[in-house]
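Troubleshooting entry. The earlier prediction with adenosine-5'-triphosphate gave an output that would not parse, so I re-checked the input for stray whitespace and re-submitted. Clean input:
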Amino acid sequence: MELTVNDLSVSIGNHAIVQDVALKVTNKQFVGLIGPNGCGKSTLLKSIYKIIKPAHGEVFLSGLDVLRSSPKVVSKQLGVVGQFNELSFDFTAAEMVMMGRTPHKGLLEADHAKDHEIVREALRKVNLESYAGRSYNSLSGGEKQRVILARALAQQPQFMILDEPTNHLDIKYQLQILQIVKQLNIGLLAALHDLTLAAKYCDYLYVMKKGQVYASGKPEEVLSKELIREVFEVECEIYRNPVTQDLGIAYFHM
Ligand SMILES: Nc1ncnc2c1ncn2[C@@H]1O[C@H](COP(=O)(O)OP(=O)(O)OP(=O)(O)O)[C@@H](O)[C@H]1O
């Protein structure tokens, strides 16, 4: 399943927050969205997953016209791991994950044995199987983040959008979560702050600055010290990690 975004602009009040963005995630690619705080990454993602209405533009998930389709139709194909997940009601972790099954059910349809099995498997994948009965509100930030990922996994989507999915996670779970989503073998679009993790896991990057796409390409093509200076206003050197051969970034104090 491919994601195509054309000419997408979002304004809030009189402010143009996202301007004429075009991007593409081809079949089963892991595409990263990077850029400084406030450049419009979350706003762009929210407009793709229908939380914010764009001023203009098109979003297609293969043949599905996302902006003109109902949330129920879109959520059968598209899983979302958003940034903030506080709840006023107290659900258990398993109940939260079961919500991922909603798009696949009719109105008032009960949870079937198969749904429970899918929920158990999703919690197992994020190492929270024994937390099924725990109150979601009592979980740590990192545990909540993993429950929200499990909910998206239970949805069994064909495409996933993730807004800073490694937020709150220690290094073990940052690596584990990125590995889990990569192994899903579906199209992924993720806003990421850690540039070396983005370089390690993503097939392709879009760099945003002031609401626009500033550059795009494969990580090793895009992540130059010049681009990091222009976009993030930080001096650095790019190198190959001698142990892992991954792209490394050495930042210098300003
Ligand atoms: N509802 C709103 N009202 C006013 N301004 C908003 C609103 N939502 C977002 N903005 C502004 O739009 C800009 C882009 O915000 P957005 O959250 O998309 O950035 P981001 O790139 O995801 O940032 P971060 O990396 O800090 O999460 C920011 O300046 C933000 O203050």
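This one parsed fine. The pocket of adenosine-5'-triphosphate is lined by residues 12, 17, 35, 37-43 (CB under 6 Å).
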